[in-house]
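In response to reviewer comment 3 from the previous cycle, which asked for concrete evidence that the modeling workflow produces usable outputs, we include below a single protein chain processed end to end. The sequence was submitted unchanged, and the resulting structure tokens are shown without manual editing.
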Amino acid sequence: MPWFVLYTKSRNEKIVAEKLKAKNIKLYCPLIKTKRKWSDRTKTVEEPLFRSYCFVNLPEHQQANVFDALGVIRYLSGLNKHDIVKDSGIEIIKRMLNEAEHNLVETFTRGDQLTISSASFTNTV
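The workflow returned the following structure tokens.
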């Protein structure tokens, strides 16, 4: 069964994940640990790796059930069908998050070139 991509309200990824897990829906919301600094303290917090996105794994006839959770906007889709992510794609994300030092995870914009020098994707461009 493939994974479907849910688009959520901004900063609602963890809330959506909790609500859908409570409904026994198989869900993956990849989180990274990052340090946040306030004027009086520094704290390590978990943030979504992909802002406004979660992955759900459920049969097609149950896809409407996700909309019971506040914060779910829609499925990511194109060409009149929901976009999917294969199990292997989810496993790659999980492996990368398990092996990477989260404080080294950075975001990039389209067109940026980078070389990965450690973890699962070593020496790839």
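The mean pLDDT is 87. We consider this sufficient to address the reviewer's concern, and the full set will be provided in the supplementary archive.
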